[in-house]
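S.,

As promised, the adenosine-5'-diphosphate run. Input:
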Amino acid sequence: LVQVFPVSKSGIDAMHGGLMVIRDVTDKRMSEQLKADFFANAGHELKTPLTAISGFAELLENGLVPKDKKDYYIGKILTEAKRMSTIISDILEISSLENKTTAEEVTDCKLSEICTAVKECLEPAASAKNVTIELSGDSFTVRAAYKHIYELVENIVSNAIKYNKDGGRVEITLHDVGETGCIYVRDNGIGIPKESLNRVFERFYRVDKGRSTKEGSTGLGLSIVKHIVNCYGGTVTLDSELGKGTLVCVRLPIVKNIME
Ligand code: ADP
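Predicted complex:
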């Protein structure tokens, strides 16, 4: 896409010539389109639980719910409200990622410390599903905002728990391979069908809305992961087999201590 601007007041004059600026606006238009799509998707995703909440609340208000079903409807309202709250938190997270990280926020992030903190935080959710989390390997350090690397690991590990089976396993392994640090998160959960593999990093994409709505998911987690990884010059790949499990691999540039 190009935009053409005649610079001289009278535009371009065949006799006297003129000056014209041609600017490629493809990227700008594309990012405007992405923003428009994002808001349309966000609006739709928020409207669905809101419609359910209003519907259930109206039924209760009009006394149309049998006594023995009241708790069920109240439970539904709370679940949908929680879902809206998760979507809003993820949207706020994305908008904070769009803002530039300040120099003070960037620090040496030790991956073993961050993974241990994430493991401790997600342990209750894992034990509720009878899932074990193991952490091993050699730690490495990246220069980044702590909150970004924490968020990155947390999103991947919480997926490995959410989409796991009862009694499943989550293995977090760290590898220092020279200038690159690798974080592997492997689970033996429900897996992802082949046709969805290259779509799971898209904003709001969920493999199966039914199964993931139950898990309180928004389809934003992996897009946040990808965004963070891109910000720090890394890569993220995902491999999965339906019914067998998933392996997510994040590669980030390592900070080496020059005194070493
Ligand atoms: P969310 O989990 O909030 O829906 P994500 O962007 O993190 O959003 O993931 C997108 C979709 O990819 C999920 O809805 C789920 O269907 C699938 N997915 C992600 N991680 C896994 C995993 N470890 N095992 C199976 N499915 C997964």
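Residues 155, 159-160, 163, 187, 189-192, 200, 205-207, 212, 217-223, 246 surround adenosine-5'-diphosphate (CB under 6 Å). The CA atoms of residues 9 and 175 lie 62 Å apart.

- D.
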